[in-house]
Amino acid sequence: MFGLASGFYDNYFVPPEVSCLIVGLNDAGKTALLERVKVTDFTVPGPSTGKRIAIQKDRNISIVNKTMVEKINENPVQLQKVQTKSPSRRRRFACPSPGSYNQLNFDSDEETDLVDSGGESKVHHRELSKEIIIELPSVNVTVSPPGSPNKRTSNGIEISVMGDNHVFNGNDNGSKDNNTRREIGSDEKEYDVKAGKKMLPLRLIRPTRESHSPLNNFHGTKFLLTQYLNACMLNAYFSNKKSE
Amino acid sequence: MNLGKIEACGAKVRLMDLGGTVKMRPLWERYYKDVHAITFVFDVSPSCEVSKLMEARAYYRCMCDDESLRGVPILIFANKTDTRRLKMVDDDNDENTSLLIGDTSLLDIAELFLSPPRGLKTATEFLGESDTHSSDCCGENGNISMFAGSAKTGEGVAPAFDWLIRKGADRVRQLRKSDDI
Lengths: 244, 181
Prior knowledge:
The complex is a heterodimer of chains A (244) and B (181).
Chain A: H1 2-13, E1 17-24, H2 30-38, H3 50-74, H4 76-83, H5 99-103, H6 121-131, E2 140-143, E3 156-161, E4 164-169, H7 178-185, H8 214-217, H9 221-243
Antiparallel strand pairs in A: 2-4, 3-4
Helix pairs in contact in A: 3-4, 3-7
Chain B: E1 2-8, E2 11-17, E3 37-43, H1 50-65, E4 74-79, H2 106-114, H3 123-127, E5 144-148, H4 157-180
Parallel strand pairs in B: 3-4, 4-5
Antiparallel strand pairs in B: 1-2
């Protein structure tokens, strides 16, 4: 009897499952919108009162800024390093993006690109996910002299930032300062973001392609190849024309 | 296709993001039967061509005419409004002959987009007087609403999807009731 009653109760109060479609032309920003909705806070009272929300967010940001400023005064060097690196985000793809997208810097707050070499890349990623969450005070930054062979320590990972080689020895003591650190890089004001969340960087969001062929979907290999061939042919054609 | 699951406004929402290339567009209508809400996204940044806007409008009209979408709430989202604050830099205008949106006001764009061949209201009635980023939905039973915002900064996304999810949940309840009967 209780089962029946609870069943009715559950059935009555079950949250409705809405399936929602996002469509639009290419480059309209659908995937970005999806990623944005994932991190949007809907609990802020009063929809369609953009002004009030903006004021609240301003306050938050100013508070965050204060702590940031203090921290920057404490040890500026380390913070500068942290600003330019966020290796753990490397794994957060919406879907596999072609390698060329990582070279484009859509976001100014993430300049770091890891330089992996072929077969070792998987190992790299695993290490990243475990160990590279770096607590601010415990970061040891050692800049290896230029020209010296790169060494990988047991828990350190080589990262090349803009041509320099830094070895970050990270101990993951938890990530208390994650929020403040994420706020540092972002120049633009964001609205209605859930606490402690950040949207996927735009440079990782790539055009959603058709998935008939596995090649098409995986790192856009086929696409890149055809583009490259096209470019080569055009080049040859025009050079011929010029010589004539 | 990208998937996302969120919980908001007392509902579990499954978001499906379809591709927008020319090849993928015919596939949209296969999903219409199974969804409770639809978002149509288009670009209103100043550097977007007007022809693209017209194309989007054509697809939107096709979508509206679809029989399986009767009663399904449609959110029209004008994206990339954050770029509208910046002023256009006019260089190499001679080479670029395509007509751009430029600083056309959002209301004009909405008028253009929603000016219907069918028996819908005009955009001014849809949006009221305000040219703000979050305009209210149309009428009492209005299933179509237009919002403007930016996915990059998150401006206007929350009110838009708040509206959509509530409408979608209503739709789900409606379907349940009709199933019960």
